[in-house]
């Protein structure tokens, strides 16, 4: 499975592609940060993010997209930009019909470090360890995007199988006519 992780942000939008499956070594395909200037109008910044994400989807053709779930912070200007960038990420993935998963920061921290309260340096160190890198991807937005992709591979695939099993169990049983042996 190939997953594009997106850590949404209006100034820095982290993107990272990881490939692998549960129980197998994961591979970092690429990682970067899409940057926009605070001097530009918000609409233009969102277009820049959209074009950047479209380019990543074209180049890496992921099987799924994992986006950090936006949560409320005390600074409303930060949350607005993050929410707007998140919306763009959801739209570009949905437009292509890709499966989309939203993971909270604490889910990602727990999946990667074992603790939902881990600090950013701990997340980066574990990302480097999991992917056998010399150093964590930098800046932290890039590392967070990769951590999202890892989380989705480890948790998202299992969740999709559980959802499919629940859906199958809720469908009426199929009956087949008995054959008489003729």
Task: Compile the SSE list and pairings.
Elements: E1 2-7, E2 12-19, E3 27-35, H1 42-60, E4 64-68, H2 76-95, E5 100-103, H3 105-113, H4 120-130, H5 140-170
Helix pairs in contact: 1-2, 3-5, 4-5
InterPro entries: RNaseH-like_sf, RNaseH_sf, X-over_junc_endoDNase_Mg_BS, X-over_junc_endoDNase_RuvC
EC number: 3.1.21.10
Binding site for Mg(2+) 2: 68
The gist of it:
Belongs to the RuvC family. This protein has helices spanning 42-60, 76-95, 105-113, 120-130, 140-170, and strands at residues 2-7, 12-19, 27-35, 64-68, 100-103.
Describe it for me?
The protein contains five helices and five strands; from the N terminus they run E-E-E-H-E-H-E-H-H-H. Helix 3 crosses helix 5 and helix 4 packs across helix 5. The radius of gyration is 19 Å and the shape is globular. Strands 3-2-1-4-5 form a five-stranded mixed sheet. A hairpin with a 7-residue loop joins strand 2 and strand 3. It has one domain: Ribonuclease H-like superfamily/Ribonuclease H (Nucleotidyltransferase, domain 5), CATH 3.30.420.10. With 182 residues, it is of the alpha/beta class. The mean pLDDT is 90. It is an enzyme of class 3 (hydrolase). Its EC number is 3.1.21.10. This is Crossover junction endodeoxyribonuclease RuvC.
């Amino acid at each position: 499975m190939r997953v594009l992780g997106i850590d949404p942000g209006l100034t820095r939008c982290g993107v990272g592609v990881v490939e692998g499956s549960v129980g197998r070594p994961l591979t970092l395909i690429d990682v970067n940060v899409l940057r926009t200037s605070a001097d530009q109008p918000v609409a233009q910044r969102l277009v820049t993010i959209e074009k950047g994400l479209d380019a990543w989807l074209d180049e890496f053709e992921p099987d799924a997209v994992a986006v950090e779930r936006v949560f409320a912070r005390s600074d409303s200007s930060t949350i607005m930009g993050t929410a707007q960038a998140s919306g763009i990420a959801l739209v570009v993935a949905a437009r292509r019909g890709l499966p989309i998963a939203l993971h909270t920061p604490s889910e990602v921290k727990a999946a990667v470090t074992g603790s939902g309260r881990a600090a950013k340096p701990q997340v980066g160190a574990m990302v480097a360890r999991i992917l056998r890198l010399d150093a964590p991807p930098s800046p932290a937005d890039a590392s967070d995007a990769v951590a999202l992709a890892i989380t989705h591979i480890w948790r998202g695939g299992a969740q999709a199988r559980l959802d499919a099993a629940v859906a199958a169990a809720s469908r009426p049983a199929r009956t087949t006519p008995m054959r008489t042996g003729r």
